[in-house]
Design goal:
The chain is an alpha+beta fold. The protein is built from 13 helices and four strands. It has a four-stranded antiparallel sheet with strand order 2-3-1-4. The radius of gyration is 62 Å and the shape is rod-shaped. The two termini are 28 Å apart.
Length: 447
């Protein structure tokens, strides 16, 4: 079919096209007039999802923003929010609503659920693409009722969103509170074990006995080394007792040196007397007796000094034994104190470990308790719904424009359909398509 043929068909079937178009437009106009007017009220909400949480301090990552906004839309469309709207507006207490529910549902189910589903059918939630704004729209036959329901949905959404934020925090707070009791008991038990051990052994936190005992152990060790040196020295001197005259103590003794000087003087006197009076002279005999007495005294004094060195050796041995016993006892005392200190350190670590676990749980308990009592939300009403002055449906102008468009399409389709059923020759092209004979001429129509 050529365009010229199409125009010929339209010219021949224009009445059909006009009738179909008129019928569609008239029907659309009649329906638009007869349909009850619907009013749409909109509440605009803004969600602050980019600021840090005032309690937890968490910030929502930018890549999760789209999912977060989609979640908020789902919450608004949820049955929980719709049922809260029914409760807020007390729609389930209206007698006419109860009668309608009885008529449609025969009393089956719950009235609040039925009303919530009815409200959800007329609810529209539209999030903004480039911002954190959500528009809640509700359509109803009463403009004031539509505005009230839209605002109620916004308020119910804010309350439900806050509950969804608070309820997990309350559960966590209860759980942390339950966990804090045994942890606190564990801290108290560990502290009691530490205190009992300190009380049993008389140890205080600032006790410096270990340092004192360690210093005393070092002093005893030093004294023992000195005693061993003295003992070795006296034993060496005792070994020289066979040559007592050459012993340092003997050589340094003033008494022995005086006696030796006196002995030398008496021997010199004896030599003089022997040459002058002879050995039988009484003076010579007296001098000889004095010399023997001096030698006896020197020998006795030397023997006394040698004996004193042996006594010193025995005294050093006894002192060394006492120091060694005291050193061993001091070592045991220091080791015992160190063992107690190590045990105290273990008990202190137990206390610190239990305290850290308790502090961590207590910190989380405080945070979750604050979160469970918070009344702050990141949602604010940007523009509350007001009673719309113009109805949102039916849109007569739009409906008529669509009716003209659809009526024209239906009219053209009807004309073409009739032409297919009852084909006629309307031009040269139709004759050429119907017959293989050549066209000889065209008889013009009379004016």
């Amino acid at each position: 079919m050529t365009f010229h043929q199409f125009l010929l068909i339209l010219r021949a079937r224009w009445l059909v096209v006009a009738c179909v178009l008129g019928t569609v437009v008239a029907t659309t106009l009649l329906v638009s007039v007869l349909l009850p007017r619907q009013y749409t009220a909109e509440t605009v909400l803004v969600i602050d999802a980019k600021s840090a949480d005032p309690i937890a301090g968490a910030i929502l990552p930018p890549q999760m923003m789209a999912g977060y906004m989609a979640t908020q839309v789902d919450i608004i469309n949820s049955n929980r929010v719709a049922e809260r709207v029914v409760a807020m507006l007390k729609l389930d207490e209206v007698p006419a609503v109860r009668e309608q529910w009885q008529a449609e549902a025969d009393g089956n189910g719950e009235l609040r659920v039925w009303l919530a589903e009815a409200l959800q059918k007329k609810l529209g939630v539209k999030p903004s693409r480039e911002s954190n704004v959500i528009t809640i729209a509700f359509t109803g036959s009463d403009p004031q009722f539509a505005a009230a329901v839209a605002n109620a949905f916004a308020q119910a959404y804010i309350e439900v969103n806050l509950e969804l934020k608070v309820e997990p925090a309350r559960q966590y707070a209860r759980w942390f509170d339950e966990q804090s009791v045994p942890l606190r008991e564990k801290v108290e038990a560990a502290q009691k074990r530490l205190s009992d051990y300190q009380l049993q052994h008389g140890i205080v936190p600032s006790d410096g006995r270990l340092d004192v005992e360690t210093t005393r152990l070092a002093e005893l060790s030093t004294q023992l080394v000195a005693a061993e040196g003295q003992r070795m020295e006296t034993r060496s001197r005792q070994g020289q007792a066979g040559a007592a005259d050459t012993m340092p103590e003997v050589l340094q003794s003033g008494l022995i040196q005086g006696l030796k000087a006196e002995l030398a003087r008496q021997e010199a006197t004896r030599e003089q007397l022997a040459s002058r009076v002879g050995k039988n002279h009484p003076d010579y005999t007296r001098i000889e007796a004095e010399i023997r007495s001096l030698r006896e005294r020197i020998g006795a004094e030397t023997q006394r000094i040698a004996s004193s060195i042996g006594s010193a050796t025995r005294s050093n041995l006894a002192r060394e034994a006492d120091l060694r016993a005291a050193l061993d006892a001091q070592k045991k005392r220091v080791l015992q104190l160190r063992e107690r200190r190590d045990q105290i350190a273990v008990l202190q670590r137990d206390v610190e470990s239990a305290q850290r676990a308790y502090d961590l749980v207590a910190q989380r308990l405080t945070q979750t308790s604050l979160e469970s009592r918070t009344q702050q939300t990141n949602i604010a009403v940007l523009a509350p719904a007001t009673s719309p002055l113009q109805h949102s449906s039916p849109r007569t102008a739009l409906n008529l424009a669509l009716a003209v468009f659809l009526g024209t399409l239906l009219g053209l389709g009807s004309a073409l359909l009739l032409e297919l059923v009852d084909q006629r020759v309307r031009g040269v092209e139709d004759i050429e398509q119907c017959s293989a004979a050549p066209l000889l001429g065209i008889i013009p129509s009379r004016a």
